[in-house]
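=== RUN LOG ===
request id: a7f3
mode: sequence -> structure
chains: 1
length: 209
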Amino acid sequence: QMPGTARHDREMAIQAKRNLAKTTDPVERLRLQCLARGSAGIKGLGRVFRIMDDDNSRTLDFKEFVKGLNDYAMMIDKEEAQEIFRIFDKDGSGTIDFDEFLVTLRPPMSKARKEIIMQAFRKLDKTGDGVITIEDLRGVYNAKHHPKYQNGDWTEDQVFRAFLDNFDSPYDKDGKVTTEEFMNYYAGVSASIDTDVYFIIMMKNAWKL
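=== RESULT ===
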């Protein structure tokens, strides 16, 4: 169990819904709609786009973009979608790069916050291959304290898998967590925490850094 994240998640979702009523910036509105679903909200939208990207071009045209937003049940009218698309289609090619889109959609984070998130990632990524898997967790995360392990419901691997699923998108849990997914998750958490100092203390405590 990640200390504090469920509570932060709820606070952040409530805050995002509140801010949504006030903001007119289309990109900010889309960001807040994602965050209103919790820390994995932005990542979830990324997954929807990835599934639609049949030709693996990692780009979307306007039609795909709108379909993705609809599939993800984002409340956005066509004019607003066009405006957002224009902002992201910097070179006017009629397509947008969705990695760039997700990075821009992610709530901005200070260098200090990114740094501590990466420290946590590196600590978990025992094998150093840029992906956190069950293998990596064996060395750093103790499953024995988990209530479901203690009462015999889950094996150690099931505890690890549930832990990884926290950082994964709700629709496509593959038991692997990339740097990008980890960063996206914590960008969500970060959005609910006002000061760098508090965010860094929370991360240090959570990951014993």
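=== NOTES ===
The beta strands are 59-61, 95-97, 131-132, 177-178.
Residues 5-20 form the longest helix (16 residues).
=== END ===
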